[in-house]
Predict the structure.
Amino acid sequence: MKVLVTGGASGLGAALVAACRARGDEVCAIDLDPAERSWAHDLGNTDPAAWAALADWLATQGPFDLVILSAGISATGRFETIPLAQHQNVTAVNLAGPIRLVHLLESGHLLRAGGRLICIASLSCFTGYPGAASYAASKDGLAGFARSLRRPMRKRGITVQLACPGPMDTPHATRYAPDGASTKGRLAPDRAAQAILNARSFTIIPGAGPKLAAVLGRLAPQTLTRLMGRVLFSKLK
Amino acid sequence: MWFITGASSGLGLEMVRLLAARGVPVCASGRRGPGDLPDDFPNIPYHACDLADPMAVTKLADWAMGQGPLRAVVLNAGAGFFRPLAQETPDAIARVLAINLDANIALAHRLCPVLSGGRLGLIGSVAHKGAAGMPVYAASKSALDGFGRALAEEWRGTVKLRVLHPGPVATGMATRAGRTPDFADRVFLPPRQTAAALLAALNAESGADRQTVSFLRVGLHRVLKGAA
Ligand SMILES: NC(=O)c1ccc[n+]([C@@H]2O[C@H](COP(=O)([O-])OP(=O)(O)OC[C@H]3O[C@@H](n4cnc5c(N)ncnc54)[C@H](OP(=O)(O)O)[C@@H]3O)[C@@H](O)[C@H]2O)c1
């Protein structure tokens, strides 16, 4: 099986790459830093030449049976104190880049019939995320994109899935959590990776705690967002 | 002073017409130049700006702040195409996300200091739940919803922020976006009444941060206003 993972160098992406390689898949990765069987590309970069080079590389590696969009960055704090350029970088890397990549894969027929596309969004899609407004925007955007593609792609035999992991024990979580936040209750990335790879449902929420949060978020979206504001945002400001 | 984007057509146009008729001070923007505005456009300050151009967006925010103390801002401008992903182009994808998401983030960011005590309305769409016929537009509106959801909580007590999601409205936007008109068009919402319902939802003292403004809401608003 041929696999493509974005953000394959670190965190959940790296765990997904390792899990796929362990089961014998041929894995290609896209990340900022070049590594073995990977292509260095900044998804937030809009330079046509960089995208043309990526397209050429993908054409030599594909078509793929499984594509996982895992690359992502964040910016946490009060919305207005975070520089605008940082917000724009978050939406570029987490939303515009992935949409453009899927568009590229689609127009190049690089996703094989019978294959799978997994978009890694966030539990924030169910809870809201005050203190990370542009991040929440980008992840909800990716979720809306996955929901929109689900039916048209299924007609062509491609399964689209949306993974919404909660806090994980990755460099990403540590970088963006409030200072002194406990790492207890954070999911290990290799466990999240296994849960995602094994899942058959459209929405994938690894871990029992996050599953519960998602149910509550569905039932009482605004109450949960206010709770997030109290436990998270108040520590960030 | 109110400030409304996307006021040169459709819902934004109806909103500025309603506000001007009520004698509420309002300033407006759209992409087209002032010469291309409809003949009966109200006599209000207007600034042309392409929201896909980040420099122009900064200038627009500064222009709006210069029109007087802002009491309410409605970020209503929006664009998109009714077509499958394979028929999109990288440039069109970038433009739709820039107009529907990044420009609104930039305007909220720059206007934040003067919005204190006021209101901010973000006009989304029911497509934010996902729409097979328009994946890029749907993604941009889902993103706007997630942005507004987070910011409404961050700004609670300072700025009243609401994300309002209209159902299909007969502004011609869908046809311009590439959708072939069919029987479904007959159940599209009437633009003027929808605009009135949007303004009422934004003006209301209480209400959820995120609201769908669809048939039931528009109808209810007409009935209640007719009764009052
Ligand atoms: N119509 C519907 O069925 C429907 C349903 C749900 C949500 N909505 C949302 O409601 C809002 C208003 O829609 P509408 O139906 O009134 O659409 P519309 O009649 O097409 O008007 C769109 C407005 O946005 C402006 N705009 C578009 N691209 C722009 C750009 N690059 N820079 C600056 N301004 C730009 C347009 O300016 P110019 O005309 O001067 O170019 C126009 O004033 C949009 O956010 C839309 O997504 C519409």
In short: The longest helix of chain B spans residues 90-115.
